[in-house]
Amino acid sequence: MQRLREAIRLKRSELRKNKSFSKILHHDNAPAHTSMLVRYFLAQTNTAIRPYSLYSQDLEPCDVFLYPKQKRPMKGKRFATIDEIKSESKSELMLNPKSAFQKCLGD
């Protein structure tokens, strides 16, 4: 987390200059994100946590609609390289019609 904060500090200097800016973390409540160590660090650095609504189509429509369709055919397959994963993912993604993307993104 400290490396993340430092990277944000270096790359987004305009946020430091904004006096009304406060640190807010949005995460998915995975066990690694809610451990005592992480909660202690966030409390010590005065970082607020934005609540995460599980399965909210308003927050992340692709997480709810598009990605499960893409992952299902790949379930259980083994890949030797990252490039194989990318290629298979792209192939599965291209099988979705344009209307599926429009529905997912609300256009």
Automatic annotation (TrEMBL):
Write down the InterPro entries for this protein, in alphabetical order. RNaseH_sf, Transposase-MT_Hybrid
* Source organism superkingdom: Eukaryota
The GO terms describing molecular function are: nucleic acid binding
Q: What name has this protein been given in UniProt?
A: Transposase
